[in-house]
Amino acid sequence: MSHHLVIIHPSYIAAILAGKKTVECRLSKRRIRPFGAIDRGDALWLKRPGGPVVARARVRHVRYFAAVTQRTLRDIRCRYGPAIMARAGFFTRHRSANYATVVLIDRPSSIKPLAIAKRDQRAWVLLDEAPHHATS
Questions:
Q1: For residue 43, is it within any domain?
Q2: The domain that contains 89 carries what CATH number?
Q3: 85-119 pLDDT per residue, tens
Q4: Does residue 131 lie in a domain region?
Q5: Strand order across the 3-7 sheet
Q6: Which of 9, 11, 101, 126 is most buried, judged by most C-beta within 10 A?
Q7: Domains identified in the chain, total number
Q8: Residue 51 forms part of a structural domain
């Protein structure tokens, strides 16, 4: 099992914890994470931008799409759209994406806020180990 740090808007974290957002969709022009880096059962650590990790979840299922076309995007939107809860224009803004990762989320739970030092712009990071609270 791998551990993934997922930078995600607080409203989406709340929707995941409420069971309303059950799918995370990442689209990119280049082959970057999370594409090809996730397996069923992996741990997702959900972090607010500029804030702490506040929740965790598991990967129930993952689908990868390479050589994405407009039809691929339409199919993803039709099949997973309500569960993705994408803001208006999400698929239009990413119409030139070449790679898509669709992650079905399972077993979300809140955790005690956990600070993780991260100083780059990556929105998805493969961790060496599970993050943990420092002990005094």
A1: yes
A2: 2.30.130.30
A3: 999 899 999 999 999 999 999 999 999 999 988 88
A4: no
A5: 23-28, 99-114, 53-66, 43-47, 3-7, 124-127
A6: 101
A7: 1
A8: yes
Q: How confident is the model over 26-48, as pLDDT tens digits?
A: 999 999 999 999 999 999 999 99
pTM: 0.92
Q: Contact, 45 vs 129, CB < 8 A?
A: no
Cα dist from 37 to 5, 55, 62, 78, 79, whole Å: 12, 20, 10, 24, 22
* 92 found inside a domain: yes
Judge whether 52 and 116 are in contact, CB under 8 Å.
Answer: yes
Neighbours of 72 (CB within 10 A): 16
- How many residues comprise the chain? 136
Domain interval for residue 35: 3-116
